Amino acid sequence: MTNHPFSLAGRVAVVTGGGSGIGLASAVAMAQAGARVALLDRAPNKADALVLCGNSAFGVTADVADEAELEAAFDAVIAEAGRIDILVNSAGLAIRRPALELSIADWDKVVAVNMTGTFLACRIAARHMIAGGRGGAIVNVSSIMGFSGGGLYPNISYQTTKGAIVNMTRALAIEWAGLGIRVNAVAPTYVRTPFIAPLTSDPVLVGRIEAMTPMGRLAEPEEVAAAILFMASPGASMITGHTLPVDGGFLAQ
């Protein structure tokens, strides 16, 4: 099993936003692939999530927008597991407002979590990976809205920050390639998670999403997690700087 291209046996993964949605699905997939998984989330109670991941998982609490909290959380992972090989940046925030109505305070909140939080986690994880001398793999979670200005509603702060993650991924991949750290991203379509529960509870909106998607349906979190698992695995050892749409053909139109 350890020679399988998608095995993560012996590796330690940190998943931000690991308490629910894509983050939790990714943590479960990595645990099933043999990794020891740290679920990093600002919600302190992750008991249900940890049960889904099995005995190899443990929780750490931090707000990704708070550098000091994030540093302490990664230090706690090192203290518990001894190393960090994989980072998945799944923590995210959306405040769905048109540009003319979006307050700067709300803009700053979204930027702090989606863009700055992703950068901080990448930088902290990379420092630990370099110190460990083994390199590593980072997978950021962007969105189809990082490539598209359209959608069901105006969402300027989310679209801007998710677009920034695409180019952040490229830039860090180039900067850290010589250090043995691969940096990639996924760009999911609308995914059935608590994050978009207000949309999926409305059959009319679900119908509009299905009509916008060539494959005619929303994605499931496990489908995005499978792509993240691939990007983090030895099977993707020659892939860096790439953002993989997981979108049912949305961006191919």
TrEMBL record:
Ranges for domain Ketoreductase: 11-150
Signal peptide coordinates: none
A GO term for molecular function: oxidoreductase activity, acting on the CH-OH group of donors, NAD or NADP as acceptor
Keyword Oxidoreductase carried by entry: yes
InterPro entries on file: KR_dom, NAD(P)-bd_dom_sf, SDR_fam
Pfam families, sorted: adh_short_C2 (PF13561)
Nuclease among keywords: no
SMART domains with a match to the protein in the record: PKS_KR
Keywords annotated in UniProt: Oxidoreductase
Family of the protein in this entry: Belongs to the short-chain dehydrogenases/reductases (SDR) family.
Official protein name in the record: Enoyl-(Acyl carrier protein) reductase
